[in-house]
């Protein structure tokens, strides 16, 4: 609502904002998140917004800010173009998805590496405890875990490489 000269008038929603709000709401509901949960998750990404603000965005009565749009697209794991309702070429969508896959593989590889280092440290710690009952079984189990993590890291590196290569092909094919 806005007031002018003491009179109250309802603000008309912009049709573009209304359509965006519908797509935003659909993306949120696809994740099965409440407005409050979505606001909390956005805040964890550095975007301070209230659930009442999100309700206004969904109703189309409050335009979304650029930083909110970027964070929401990342949160919902969709492209900004999808939230905006832009019709894209299939190859562009493929490239976007492939880059997301590559990014996930790289992040996952970092986590695998951290786990590998932590387990390797524990193997070193156990190796000094000669009189520990079951030590050899523990070390063997941890060594097996290290082997599996090495395999997982190799697989993730392959996924990342293939995804990036195919994303590049998809983008070049657009030209």
Give structural attributes.
elongated; mainly alpha; 434 Repressor (Amino-terminal Domain); 2 domains; 2 strands; 175 residues; 7 helices
Offer a concise description of the structure:
Helix content is 74%, strand content 3%. The chain has 175 residues and is mostly helical.
Question: Could you walk me through the main structural features you see in this protein, from its secondary elements to its overall organization?
Answer:
The protein has helices spanning 15-30, 35-44, 51-59, 66-76, 80-84, 90-127, 135-174; strands spanning 2-4, 7-9. With 175 residues, it is mainly alpha-helical. It folds into two domains: 2-84, lambda repressor-like DNA-binding domains (434 Repressor (Amino-terminal Domain), Orthogonal Bundle); 90-174. A two-stranded antiparallel sheet has the order 1-2. Strand 1 and strand 2 (7-9) form a beta hairpin. Helix 2 (35-44) packs across helix 3 and helix 6 (90-127) runs antiparallel to helix 7. The longest helix is centred in the last third of the chain and has 40 residues, at 135-174. The protein is elongated, with a radius of gyration of 24 Å. The protein starts with a strand and ends with a helix. Mean pLDDT is 87; it is low at 1-9.
The percentage of residues in β strands lies in: under 5%
Tell me the Rg in angstroms: 24 Å
Largest sheet, order of strands side by side? Answer: 1-2
Mean pLDDT: 87
How widely separated are the two ends? Answer: 47 Å
Number of strands: 2
The largest sheet, given as strand count, sense and whether it forms a barrel, is: 2 strands, antiparallel
In N-to-C order, the SSE pattern is EEHHHHHHH
Number of domains: 2
Q: Roughly how much helix do the residues carry, as a percent range?
A: over 70%
Any low-confidence stretches, pLDDT <50, length ≥5?
1-9
Please, how many helices? 7
Shape assignment: elongated
